[in-house]
Amino acid sequence: MPGFVAGKKRYTESNMCFTNLINQDTLTCSKSNHCLTSEVLDKEDSPILPGLPDDVAKHCLALVPRSYFPAMGGVCKKWRSFIQSKEFITVRKLAGVLEEWLYILTMGTEEAESHWEVLDCLGQKHRSLPPMPGPGKAGFGVVVLNGKLLVMAGYSVIDGTGSASAEVYQYDSCLNSWSRLPNMNVARHDFACAEVNGLVYAVGGYGADGASLSSAEVYDPDAAKWTLIENLRRPRWGCFACGFEGKLYVMGGRSSFTIGNSKFVDVYNPERQSWCEMKNGCVMVTAHAVLGKKLFCMEWKNQRKLAIFNPEDNSWKMVPVPLTGSSSIGIRFGILDGKLLLFSQKFDPGYITLLYDPNAAPGSEWQTSEIRPSGLCLCSVTIKA
């Protein structure tokens, strides 16, 4: 099976018009001889870059390679504010310079705690994230929103006492820093969550008293507020969620209305603000990922087949997984460059990461990849910025 390395445009020092500028305490325009200190740049009526209209200056800043963003954010408040904004990601997208990085929550074989590490499309490690704020948690939710990583709620044990959390933290992938967001309305863990149309939904799970929940809520980043929405028809926990065509799909896990694992699919329509139900979901899902307009699942009882859901006709297709790679039970998914990565849950230095390309010619969908975390992959997200 051939190895796979995605070819991507690489930036060099000669491309970096701001490389020297952002690494100096004082910025100087060589021809105009203006001293561009942070105080000058932060004046209310001052332009982002003196001598340039702001729209041109924003385009110039957006062309800088992603690895320089944290340094740029330290130049002045105006630059930092722009880098933190949704507009910054939009300008980079229009300029065709978005860089896709894979953020993997990793557990080393000898480490007591997990940590986030960042890989690019060539498998090169860029950085490890600063430690997540707050106490260590399990059963938390992870969502990507506007180029930022949200880590929500979860279950923590402090001084021997366990409790559900309503805390939400946000990691800014451009500035490499964490911040606190408003708490959720309901403390929960082992719940479903997903982004749909720029909003974040959290559904079900276990509550503060250990009881299963039917409650659901939505976070609006513009208003910086969580709002309760219509409850599920039944309590549901251990489930997962994804968004398709402006709707929220909740699958898997267990329900108080079913014996064992639930095959029901709860679908929330934000326009109608109501739930409906389907009956052909997956059960005991150990890994899931949305790629393009389809959902990819791995079921616990069938680790050698991908279950692929097409929301257009609510149909499922099964695709055999090659034996190449780890033969152990346990797979985690990653998405990079429009392809699905399958990481083994058995820590073996010699294991091979499998790669599935849904757009490849028939018979060539499966390849192998050099991309893999340094330890066990607990979960992963892809952030374009």
UniProtKB/TrEMBL annotation:
<feature type="domain" description="F-box">
    <location>
        <begin position="52"/>
        <end position="92"/>
    </location>
</feature>
<keyword id="KW-0880">Kelch repeat</keyword>
<keyword id="KW-0677">Repeat</keyword>
<dbReference type="InterPro" id="IPR001810">
    <property type="entry name" value="F-box_dom"/>
</dbReference>
<dbReference type="InterPro" id="IPR006652">
    <property type="entry name" value="Kelch_1"/>
</dbReference>
<dbReference type="InterPro" id="IPR015915">
    <property type="entry name" value="Kelch-typ_b-propeller"/>
</dbReference>
<protein>
    <submittedName>
        <fullName>F-box/kelch-repeat protein</fullName>
    </submittedName>
</protein>
<dbReference type="Pfam" id="PF01344">
    <property type="entry name" value="Kelch_1"/>
</dbReference>
<dbReference type="Pfam" id="PF00646">
    <property type="entry name" value="F-box"/>
</dbReference>
<dbReference type="InterPro" id="IPR036047">
    <property type="entry name" value="F-box-like_dom_sf"/>
</dbReference>
